């Protein structure tokens, strides 16, 4: 499913996106808060994208490539999809930080999650020092799709993470991308 916002197109990730995503994944500053170090070899990024393609085929994850005016600037994903819940994640090219792009992209995915995908719960995990991602989670709570908000210590991060929990209450299929 292709999602659109005022400035962005979010389309299902393709293997051909590996080269553009490699520019982000190889940036140590962009990867500072990720669960792995920067990936400096294109072949490793291609393997990662193939694994993500397999996860999409199995229904475990959904990955969208974020484009701005046809230029690939990042990705947004729903991972660990099961029991009507998922984790929300995003990664943007550093030169696009600070322009509200993460907010715009994640709001579109949240609307898709609680609308057509009929999820009932999303969690976004950010390391405690990642203030931009933590602000992003707080900003998304104002969307119609994220009507409830809860912060808690993340047990799997040994207290070093912040979990933003979005729950759609009775939203079912009533949301449309762009609402909120």
Brief summary:
With 180 residues, the protein is an alpha+beta fold.
Structure in words:
The structure is a single chain. The protein is an alpha+beta fold. Helix content is 27%, strand content 30%. It contains four helices and eight strands. It has helices spanning 18-25, 42-58, 101-114, 131-140, and strands at residues 3-4, 8-12, 62-68, 71-82, 85-92, 121-127, 148-153, 161-167. An eight-stranded mixed β-sheet has the order 1-2-3-4-5-6-8-7, with helices on both faces. The protein is globular, with a radius of gyration of 15 Å. The model is unreliable at 136-180 (pLDDT under 50).
What gap, in angstroms, lies between the N and C termini? 19 Å
Discrete helix count: 4
Kindly estimate the percentage of residues that lie in beta strands according to DSSP.
Answer: 25-35%
- Cα Rg: 15 Å
In terms of structural class, how would the helical and strand content be classed?
A: alpha+beta
Task: Write out the strand line-up for the largest beta sheet, numbering strands in chain order.
Answer: 1-2-3-4-5-6-8-7
Order of SSEs: EEHHEEEHEHEE
